[in-house]
Amino acid sequence: MTGSSLKYLTKEGFRNVWTNRMMSIASICVLMSCLVLIGSAALVFLNIDSLLSRIEEENVVMVYLKEDATDDDIAKMETEIESMDNISDVEFVPKEDAWEEQLETMEEAQAKFFTEISSDIPLPDAYKVTVKDLDLFDGTIKELEALDNVDTIRQNQDLAQKLVTIRQGVSIISIVIVAVLFAISLFIISNTIRLTVYSRRLEISIMKSVGATNSFVRFPFVIEGMILGVVSGVVGLGVVWGLYELAITQFGDLLSSLGLKAVVFTDYALLMLGLFVAIGIICGVGGSLTTMRKYLNKEGSEISGV
User: Fold this and answer.
1) What percent of the chain clears pLDDT 90, i.e. is strictly above it?
2) What is the pLDDT of residues 12-67, one digit of tens each?
3) Buried-most residue among 3, 55, 129, 295 (CB within 10 A)?
4) Which positions ≥6 away from 232 have C-beta within 8 Å?
């Protein structure tokens, strides 16, 4: 195919979009609606994942030190904990500070009793350790237990396991939902484009009758499918953005009262735009190629029937 032919066929693709603008608008609306559903499902998953991440960050492990641990032992332990791969934060908690916090939670009479009965502090020094990946929680606990001068470790293994299970379940459900919506999108847009091609079957038949090759006939439809896909992706992103911001405005106070914060849409806008355009092009071009196969083999039979 020469450069002039390629240029001509590309112009034909753009012209076809405008000439058959009613069917083009129908195709864009159908595909855009499917993309809005996919984008909405993706944003729900991202917010749930963000919420689980914040809960994971609060799932700290308290590592209590032995009473006879020296300052050098304490410093060495901090270095060893920080060097572990699955540790995101380490904070030393002196027993004096921990005891003061404990007294503040007691009633005044009870706190006075404990301070007067003895000057000794009944708590050990400790490290507050934040685990990075809960999937590796058990292995991290074993590493901490193997350190020298560790007395006991307080950890919530049940919560960690539940969070991992919830995250895996949400991931699987989200993938299934997006996959199903993508399949539905492909099916609907294919049928919509099938109507477009069917309405132009005489045009295709004439081109075949005068000797046009399959690639020559197919190329404008491929360009048309790409245009519809790109437009659907851009418009779909705008609709999802508007709906998301509206939802955040409506439920912002509720989220704040629960101590929650929604993800920022602009952080994912470019990625979502790329995915929307890619899905749109795949659906548009794929639907065109699949549907045209039937009419490319007629060799002018539509003319003979006129």
Assistant:
1) 2
2) 777 777 777 777 787 788 888 888 888 888 888 888 877 777 766 666 788 888 88
3) 129
4) 27, 28, 31, 32, 35, 276, 280, 284
Each residue of 91-111: pLDDT tens digit?
888 777 766 766 666 666 665
Averaged pLDDT, 251-279: 81
Walk across the sheet containing 126-131 and list its strands: 87-93, 126-131, 60-65, 150-154
Copy the structure tokens of residue 301.
């039979």
Q: What distance, in Å, lies between the first and last C-alpha atoms of the chain?
A: 31
| Residue 131: closest CA among 85, 164, 171 | 85
Exposed (0-12), middle (13-18) or buried (19+): which is 228, by Cβ within 10 Å? buried
Q: Contact at 8 Å (CB) between 214 and 299? A: no
Q: What are the C-alpha distances in Å from 66 to residues 140, 141, 148, 280?
A: 20, 17, 9, 62
More confident of the two residues 134 and 246: 246
Report the amino acid identity of residue 17.
V
Structure tokens, 146: 């193997």
**Closest listed residue to residue 31, CA positions, set 212, 201, 286, 268:** 286
Residue 99 β-bridge partners: none
Query: Angle CA(171)–CA(176)–CA(181) in degrees, nearest 5?
Result: 130
pLDDT tens, position by position, 195-235: 666 776 777 777 777 777 777 777 777 787 788 888 888 99
Asked whether 153 and 144 are in contact (CB, 8 A), the reply is yes
CA-closest candidate to residue 99, choices 73, 119, 121: 121
The answer for 62, left when phi > 0, alpha when psi is -120 to 50, beta otherwise, is beta
Largest separation between any pair of C-alpha atoms in the chain: 109
If you average pLDDT over every residue of the chain, what do you get?
76
- Whose CA is closest to 53, among 156, 135, 167? 167
H/E segment holding residue 128: strand 126-131
